[in-house]
Specification:
With 379 residues, the protein is an alpha/beta fold. It has 13 helices and 15 strands. It folds into 3 domains: 106 residues, no CATH class; 146 residues, no CATH class; 94 residues, no CATH class. A hairpin with a 2-residue loop joins β12 and β13. The radius of gyration is 22 Å and the shape is globular.
Length: 379
């Protein structure tokens, strides 16, 4: 018999499935050892007795089912196991059935991959300790003003933003957005490109950004919402996704015009740690204060984007993994090389960013590595 308790792997998996509906098997490595979760999935596919606490009611059924092949391979709750969701949270069964069409899922590849994009975001947020349960979050308001969102970081799925947003029936709204991450003092629009270049819907994403900004103003008291998180398997694909929007006929539809700050979050353990950093109140100012002396900092007053000037070298911190800012920095450096400017440049980065930055920057800038432990200790 399996006893499922809070904070166990089985409990986390069931809770995640109750929110995401279905998840790709590879995403479970974000929650712990891949081998451990592979064994757990195999075990929970078998019919057996289980209960949710020491003295709880005993059930006999499978808990999950795995179906599909390759890109469509997916994990879902077993149909009979859905009935026990109220053991996790009273009323969860009713919420789940309404959210996932009475436990009826499409076998269409596009629908599955869309669900997987959202599921990977939810898994990463869960691993980072961010609240992801819609039924535990206060509903966002359409009008008025007040601090509705929780004081701790919380992720609102796109479908819940639609319910609160302006023009919720417009199918161009939230077409690529997976959701929004609120944290004390800020809000991120969250996208997931996974392992392939994401197609960019210029008009739809402009409307998305405007609507999200209004929701953040009403529900979190934020005057401006400009940053985005772009999740993916590797920075090269994320960068291509950002540049893919260059094909838009109008410059204002580009990804980095809609969101001037685009923080790449890898779908791995480094991404979990980076997400925690970016969800820390006033993280950027705390970090720059720790890195540089006041007289060294640029305070965004320079003609190009960099954070400090040290020994006639411009220093850019890429510890926030902002690929939009990195792109502008590189373009400015390339223009300076063709001109008469002589100041050198360096980029501060994490060791896991080094390979990509070497290939992207070439000889334009040097690299200064800083361990994540140092950044985490500062924040």
């Amino acid at each position: 018999m399996i006893t499922i308790r809070p904070r166990t792997h089985a409990y986390k998996l069931i809770q995640l499935l109750s929110v995401a509906g279905e998840i790709p098997p590879g995403a479970l490595s974000l929650l712990g050892s891949e081998r451990v979760f592979d064994n757990l999935v195999h075990k929970l596919e078998l019919s057996q007795n289980f209960r949710f606490d020491k003295d709880g009611q005993v059930y006999h059924t499978k808990l999950i089912q795995v179906s599909g092949r390759k890109d469509t391979r997916t994990i879902r709750l077993y149909k009979k196991a859905v009935d026990v969701l109220d053991e996790l949270t009273p009323g969860l069964l009713k919420w789940y059935m309404a959210a996932f069409n009475n436990h009826i899922f499409s076998g269409d590849t596009q629908h599955i991959q869309r669900n997987h994009r959202v599921a990977e975001v939810l898994t990463l947020c869960m691993a980072a300790g961010i609240e992801i349960r819609p039924y535990a979050l206060p509903a966002l308001k359409k009008i008025g003003f007040g601090m509705i969102v929780p004081g701790a970081p919380s992720f609102y799925i796109a479908r819940d933003l639609k319910k609160a947003g302006i023009g919720e029936d417009n199918k161009t709204t939230y077409t690529r957005l997976t959701g929004a991450l609120f944290y004390p003092g800020g809000c991120y629009a969250v996208y997931n490109t996974r392992g392939s270049v994401m197609k960019w819907s210029g008009v739809g994403e402009v409307k998305t950004a405007v609507n999200l900004q209004e929701l953040a103003r009403i529900n979190a008291g934020l005057d401006e919402t400009k940053p985005a998180l772009l999740l993916g398997y590797d920075p090269g694909t994320a960068f291509k996704t950002m540049l893919e929007s260059d094909k838009s006929r109008r410059a204002e539809f580009r990804f980095d015009r809609v969101y001037p700050k685009i923080h790449f979050i890898p779908l791995n353990q480094y991404g979990i740690r980076l997400l925690k950093i970016l969800a820390t109140p006033d993280w950027n100012e705390k970090l720059l204060t720790a890195l540089f002396e006041p007289e060294q900092r640029s305070y965004n007053r320079a003609s190009m984007e960099y954070d400090a000037m040290i020994d006639n070298r411009m220093i850019l911190s890429h510890l926030d993994s902002d690929i939009a800012r990195l792109y502008r920095f590189r373009e400015s450096l390339a223009n300076r090389v063709s001109g008469s400017e002589t100041a050198g440049a360096d980029v501060i980065c994490y060791p896991w960013q080094t390979d990509f930055l070497k290939s992207y920057l070439g000889d334009l800038a040097g690299l200064r590595e800083l361990e994540m432990d140092s950044v985490e200790s500062v924040l």
